[in-house]
Amino acid sequence: MERMIDCVLFGASGDLALSKLIPSIYRCTKEGHVSLQSRLFFCARSQSGFENMHKNVKDALYRYLQEEEKDEKAMAAFLDCVIPIQVDITDKSSFKQLKSQLTTQSNPTRVFYLAIPPGHYAQVARVLHDQQLITESTRLVVEKPIGSDLTSSESINDALATVFSEQQIFRIDHYLGKETVQNLLAMRFGNSLFERFWDADAIDHIQISINERVGVKGRVDYYEGIGALKDMVQNHLLQLLCLIAMESPNELTPESIHREKIKVLKALRPLTGESVNENTVRAQYVAGGQNNQMESGYLEDTELSESTTETFVAIKAHINSWTWSKVPFYLRTGKRLSKQRAEIVIQFKDVALSLYPEQQLQANRLVIQLQPEERLRLHMMAKDRESLSTELKPVVLDLNFLEQKGSYRSFAYKRLFLDAVDGNRSLFMHRDEVAAAWQWIDPIATQWNKTHDLHLYRAGTDGPEAADGLINADGRAWFESE
Question: Where does the pLDDT of residue 204 fall: very low under 50, low under 70, confident under 90, or very high at 90 and above?
Fold first, then answer.
């Protein structure tokens, strides 16, 4: 289906827009999802950004697209849709040109995408309202995390709510647009094999890890004072936890899905006071070896003499529900780690009675990998075919989504952008989800500010020893994919 839209992208000269959003919108036009009669208003604050917009967009396409996507004719047609606009979001008068362009000719669907710091959301929303640029078919797409705590988050959401209805606001988390995450719901609720064994009776524990090899260079202004807890746990990891732990919605509508996710967040066992110290680990990377070369530490990257901002978090969490009360959820995320990896590990319980007492059986695991590849792996035991005796060995049933589709690759931002255009909010955040997540996160941050118990770990390693101790104390270990 070809969609005719007016898209206004604020922050079009920023890294997020150039590396993720603009290539994704190009894919939409190249594949016929968005009409080439659409208008793409790319906003830049500076004069140079405005004057060089077409060049910067073209350079971004060549840099971030895959080779097979670089179609000269398609890129030229895409660039013809791009209308550079100089807008200073702090200056109401600078919106006049945008208004004149939008009102001269109007497409049915209008999308405002705010690829700017959340602190400016309210201001932009007010100006859009004052300039009478909001229609019934307008969508507002905003990046998370929204705010730095519950109070600031509610302030931003309150300001947006005075201008837009909740149905018009699309709070984006690109992890939820990944093919594997979408398949998680299909796997859980479309197959009795998993649907009947998705609870404390069958599952021993669950791990959710998002590990990054990069440090904070280029994001220093944002990251310092925010840290991994608010940047990654409140944002991405809790959303993945919701999809793993939510009960089956009565139907696959945005309202039903949001309702079940909110139940999970509100059922998270609170971590306060001493329980924070017992169930969490915070750490910061220091200089170390990676890829046969030395990597700088956080203080060198930020040019600070001291900082207590964490770049690594590990948390042991529980959900107070009949389904999950006895199943620990181990959350882990960090920067400057040895591998780039995002995955969910569902570890099932051992067999009730082993018929192979002389052999060491490994627990069954379902590994849902989001990065670097999108795939599902089921780890199980099977007979070793090379042995005449009955000897068991671990085997893996491997579903690689890229191989399933040949050269096709799903792109999260493309999928989510199209969902926003279509008004489908299933993979976006309701404001009550955001509030419930902050309500759980805030006491942890408060306790950390009191204790200042900050571990250190070398760049290029798997994180601090304390994170291993957190899970080892329960007789378990972090699962590391090959």
Answer: very high
